[in-house]
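Reply to dn_fold:

You asked what the input looked like. This is it:
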Amino acid sequence: MSNTDKVTVLSGQLFRDMILNASAVLNDKKQSINELNVFPVPDGDTGTNMSLTMGNAAAALGDVKYERANHDLGEIAGVVSSALLRGARGNSGVILSLLFRGFAQSLKGKESAMAGDFARALDDGVKAAYSAVMKPAEGTILTVSRLAKDAAIEYAETYADDTTEIEFAPLLVKVIEASKAALADTINLNPVLKKAGVVDSGGVGYVYILEAMLAAVKGEHWTSDGGTETNARADFSVFSDEDITFSYCTEFIVTRTNKKDTNNLRAFLNTLGDSIVVVDDEELIKVHVHTDQPGVVITEALAYGTLFSTKIENMREQHTEKLKEEIAAEIPAEPEFAEIEKEIGVVAVCAGNGMAEVFKNLGVDRIVSGGQTMNPSTEDILREINRVPADKVFVLPNNSNIVLAANQCVGAAHERDVIVIPTTSIPQGVSAMLTLDPDVSASEIAAAMNEAKDNVKTISVTKAARDSNFDGADIKEGDLLAMREGKLLSAAPAFSSLLETLKETIGGYEPEFITIYTGSDADSDQTDELEAALSAAAPDAEITIVDGGQPVYAFIISAE
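and this is what came back:
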């Protein structure tokens, strides 16, 4: 065993190295973690969310002032906790931030920690995570973290008192052994995982974090092969004056997770559009294309890595948008905190210009861009909450993978009360907004919104991004899927095969109102077929078609 292995005290500098290692390994392993997701549609996949979340902490610690060794453990842990909370994305990222929040609270004010302190900090982290999750499920990262901390406590308690110099390396070896055993058992604890034949993806990420910590104790510094996630955006303004042949200007960045030849991507894009620019290096692929099928383009690009940013615009509206941008550039930047001018305000999360317009027309004050494929962070949501000029701000996450991140904003906003309505779909958010009466109390508004969201039925039509066994069905990449409230309703290789299922299901609801939100890659002929089928299934229903422009889902159907 080397001298670096004989570490008996956890310092602030060592903990910093642990977090930097953890961020690097999650960045490298995110795609392999993503591939364990049983959900066949990209939804801010676990590996991506954990990597972005931990990357926020690494960025905070990357400040030169933290490179020195004169910062105590409590201070460094506090920096990590704060950064993780602000950057938490998706359920996995939020749970990760909660584990480290409890950990940091346990070590607050400590210059350093012995093994016993470390074990108790892990315990407090697990308690914080379990207490914040409304219905904690076993067979997840929660299980893995709980059994890992049990091993830490058991190992530390084999010594008489906290003054005994317990070495961290063998302690972490025991913790990792326990975490791997717990991870292997997740397939037996979670029926969904058992059907798919995989272990929990979040648990895998947590094991990687523990292994990164052990490497830091041994003096090993992990260097990411994939590079650090950045906030870079492609600049393709040079194409703004081109003739319009295809409808949608599609721009995005992919963080590379493999070395697939991007010439194949260029060739694929040539079959679907024009004005193609593909710029790549070892870390990123930046793409610009004019196409009528942006969803198909993005799905193909996911084979090269993880989607980092995306922008899809209807080019027939670009001239107007450019004028708006020029006007906006002359307007002073918005203040970080809006002055309170009214009692009630609303923030909604959605993707697609059409969806944003729907919510704005219903009275939503601020829009957080995100949803499928790119879950916004807690900080993203909190920023918009603070810009609402209201004393009480309602938040509509509109996606099951964003609810936890939204919940972390409660109590964190500047001089504002935050009320999260746990909407898990766009139709739920729309129905909730339709009940908004600013002249009644916040509790009455919350009750009405919750009742409304529970009365709407949502079915989405999308395309499978990966082979999967989901809800007991074998799904092939490229299959068309009908999803009902997040669960698989039907899968088929052709759209026409889904129509009978959609007709039967929607007809069974006997709805008064049906709204079809068309996505960025919705086919006009399919839209007509869908409208005709639903009209036949529910002849008395009023059917409305809205150009939502959302990615991933060609159609989102609301029935009330």
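Confidence is low (pLDDT under 50) at residues 225-243.
Hope that clears it up.
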